[in-house]
Amino acid sequence: MQNKQIVFTAPRLAELLDKPVPFPGPGEVLVKVMVSTISSGTERANVIGDPNTNCAAEGKVQFPRTAGYSTSGVVVQVGEGVKSLAPGDRVAMFWSKHATYNCMPENNVVKLPENISFEEASLVHIGCFPLAAIRKCHLEVGEAALVMGQGILGQMAVMELRAAGAAPIIAADPKKEKRARALELGADYALDPFDPDFSKTVKEITGGGVPVCIEVTGFGSGLDGALDCMKPFGRVALLGCTRNSDFTIDYYRKVHGPGIVLYGAHTNARPNHESYPGMWTTRDDMIALLKLISLGRLSLKQLIEESHLPTEATAIYERLCNEKSFPVVQFDWSEME
Question: Exposure winner among 111, 122, 218, 257, fewest CB in 10 A?
Answer without folding.
Answer: 257
